[in-house]
Inverse folding.
């Protein structure tokens, strides 16, 4: 398609065409917004209690790692005041329970037959309830997975499961806070 020349006989330059396209793109916007602007929680919620999650799994301290990540995410991404204990002064309480954790081999080295990568899976139950008992958010089967590489050299073995659990906890916290705020 050919653009017609302006009546003055001059053709629009590539620079001015580029600027026009940039201006139109800026006006159109991309639809991106932060979670603080799409908060779906009731306006009377200002304080959220996040007590330590329960641990119904066999994994040591997993509930502490996950609770700390969720508290950190709420503190950094939201305007809510976060407390560690439920009580009369909180507007809502987020409770969680780790139902199951599992680490399993994912791929194997074809020459040695040993696992070359593994996956850690965490399943938990989460709910946010306001002070009147109304459920604001509930997910009884929240499942997250994180893959990690298994060291091939036994002499320099480094357990990658703990860093994988840290990555999983950060991802879970980001997703959970987004889901709670955006009412998914």
């Amino acid at each position: 398609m050919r653009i017609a020349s302006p009546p003055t006989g001059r053709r629009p330059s590539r620079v001015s065409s580029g600027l026009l396209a940039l201006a139109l793109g800026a006006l159109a916007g991309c639809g991106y917004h932060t979670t603080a602007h799409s908060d779906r929680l009731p306006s009377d919620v200002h304080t959220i209690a996040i007590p330590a999650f329960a641990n119904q799994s066999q994994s040591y301290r997993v509930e502490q790692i996950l609770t700390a990540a969720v508290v950190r995410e709420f503190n950094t991404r939201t305007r809510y005041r976060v407390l560690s204990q439920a009580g009369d002064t909180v507007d809502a309480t987020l409770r969680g329970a780790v139902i199951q954790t599992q680490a399993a081999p994912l791929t194997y080295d074809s020459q040695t037959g040993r696992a070359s990568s593994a996956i850690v899976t965490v399943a938990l139950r989460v709910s946010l309830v306001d002070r009147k008992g109304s459920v604001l958010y509930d997910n009884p089967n929240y499942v997250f997975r994180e893959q990690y590489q298994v060291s091939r050299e036994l002499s320099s073995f480094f357990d990658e499961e703990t860093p994988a659990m840290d990555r999983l906890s950060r991802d879970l916290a980001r997703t959970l806070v987004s889901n709670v705020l955006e009412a998914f």
Remarks:
- The chain has one domain: 14-182.
